[in-house]
Amino acid sequence: MAVDYRGLVDDLEGEHRDLEQVLASLGPDDWERDSHAPGWKVRDQCAHLAYIDEVAAIGLRDVEAFKQSMAEQDGLKYLERNRARSHEDLLNWWREASSGLIRDARPVDPKARLPWYGPDMSASSYITARLMETWSHGLDIVDVVPAERPDTDRIRHVCMIGVQTRKFSYINRGLEPNDEPVFLDLTLPSGAHWTNGAPDAPSRITGPASHFCRVAAQRRHLADTALVVEGEAAQSWMDIAQTFAGPPGQGRKPGQFPGENEGDPS
Fold first, then answer.
1. Are strands 203-208 and 228-230 parallel, antiparallel or unpaired?
2. Residue 137 in domain
3. pLDDT for the residue numbered 70
4. Cα 22 → chain centroid
């Protein structure tokens, strides 16, 4: 199925818009709250998004400049360097970085191959990854501050990247991938269904799409969701699912978000 690249960029901009409303509402104490990611405060979540959006925009504009920026990176030290920024400066940095990413993404050929930390990616995958990160790090923020950012049907893109990273989730842990078919029937916030795979697959995952995305992005433990997971292949996948690049994440512990398994958190 062809991807509507322009619509995808619009959806990323929509995620930026919703997160901007949250960030603009934060008080000084909110910016310094600890998030559920060990060692990361709310300010660090914002700094991460600003920094990576800047890097992604470079990749859209200039491949050689992107390679140079990769050579100059020093792990997560950018978080330390930006902890001296004021909250207002952090917010303005993220606003400029996110809007710059949208501006540079719009004229890109949807068929273009773009550089990233691992293998090159299609333009659609590139923007989908940025949407997933904006949503997931935004979730880290709204999980601990007195602000709401309800999920929208835009999380269907996160569902898709969750499916696309199934094999990676095994390989990333040194495991043999389980390629037994799994059928997904997930309910989006609007009530519409998002499905993937063959309905007669021996394993299946059903429930709120918001919950699937939280598990796949390692923002919730499966036990704290209302997902129904049937079959060994589906269970083993959900135990290790990881939508983001890098080494295996720590994820969340069961019981950190009690009550969410009774319904859709969005």
1. antiparallel
2. yes
3. 81
4. 17
pTM over 0.90: yes
Q: What is the pLDDT of residues 207-216, one digit of tens each?
A: 999 999 999 9
Residue that is last in its domain, among 125, 149, 173? 149
**Domain of 28, in residue numbers:** 5-149
Residue at which a domain ends, from 149, 168, 199 = 149
pLDDT of residue 259: 75
Please check whether residues 106 and 173 belong to one and the same domain: no
Strand segments, DSSP code E, in 94-242 are: 113-114, 121-122, 182-187, 193-196, 203-208, 228-230
User: Is the same domain home to 12 and 45?
Assistant: yes
Which residues 6+ apart lie within 8 Å of 78 measured at CB? Answer: 47, 51
Same domain assignment for residues 25 and 129:
yes
- 116 and 181 assigned to the same domain: no
Q: How many domains does one find in the chain?
A: 2
Average pLDDT over residues 213-225: 97
Is 50 inside any structural domain?
A: yes
The first and second tokens of residue 26, run together, are 């934060």
CA dihedral 75, 123, 243, 159 (to 10 degrees): 150
The secondary structure of 64-88, three-state, reads HHHHHHHHHCCCCHHHHHHHHCCHH
The string of pLDDT tens digits covering residues 131-150 is 999 999 999 999 999 999 99
Q: 17 pLDDT exceeds 70?
A: yes
Return the beta strands (E) in the chain as ranges: 113-114, 121-122, 182-187, 193-196, 203-208, 228-230
